[in-house]
Amino acid sequence: MFFASDNSGPVHPEVLTALAEANQGYAMAYGADAQMQAVREKIRRIFEAPEAAVYLVATGTAANSLALATLSQPWQTIFCSPVAHIHEDECNAPEFYSGGAKLTLVSGGDRMTPEALRASITGEETRGVHGPQRGPVSITQVTERGGVYSIAELQALCAVAKEYGLPVHLDGARFANALVALNASPAEMTWKAGVDAVSFGGTKNGCMGVEAVIFFDPKHAWEFELRRKRGAHLFSKHRYLSAQMDAYLTDDLWLRSARRANDNCARLVEGLGAAGATFLHEPQANIVFASFPRATHRRLMDAGASYHLWGAELEGEDESEMLACRMVCDWSIGTDQIDRFLSLL
Fold first, then answer.
1. Distances in Å between the alpha carbon of 40 and those of 189, 241, 292?
2. DSSP-based three-state secondary structure for 6
3. Structure pTM?
4. For this UniProt entry, which residues form the secretion signal (predicted)?
5. pLDDT per residue over 39-68, tens digit each?
């Protein structure tokens, strides 16, 4: 009954097999391996973007930070949600890799609105040389609260950014989960909506540790290559990144894994609702924020359930007090785990 994080699950067997196969013999280093070319072509085909520049790194923080650094200048500010991963969970890495670009938090919750984004953008570049200049807009899909922007919502946010000539970055650590939730195409959820660069996640969805960075305009390619090298994120034995991403994209493993995670999350949500739990946010992909009594949390955790309380403490005398928690389903969660968890509610 492990719902702590989709970072915590096992590597998919198909990815492990690909790694073992890649471990035979020799391959050129630093991304010159043959598999990387196959990965590049697969991503270009999947995204309907034949000219896209495609690179691999090992972590989501590197993907986000290096992509945003490529899209911004040190004197600019990056617009994002107050709960964006780049703000709350990356230890100022975007600021570090960009050489000092700040983050401007767009008022509201996990999903920005065009109105709030426009207000934040117009609030900058008001002090001439003394203040930060307007920089990229970063959108998280799936959001940190489990929400999914519709295609129309993405288009509206991108349209605001384009009014001011600003590039748009999509943090897609859970890209596949959002895509299957929307039943959209990768192109529809990115460049067709106005997105310029994507951090395309693999680690949370069955890979060992690999993320792709995709620029739909190849003019950014050389700068990103330099920043990746300077930032110590160019792997010498790159074939082990390529092998993971190649397996991830083969036979739609990335979509199959995300669909399983989302479907099992829906099963969990249905059972929680039937048991009287309340939801802090509408579950739309593979993340659930729910609230139920302290006594229930104790019973679940005593039975071995693993998940995170959210702004609450398990210790306390009032067993009926409602405590919030965060639960995440990864590709490996089985219905047996979910049903056992629900039986304890």
1. 19, 12, 46
2. coil
3. 0.96
4. none
5. 999 999 999 999 999 999 999 999 999 999
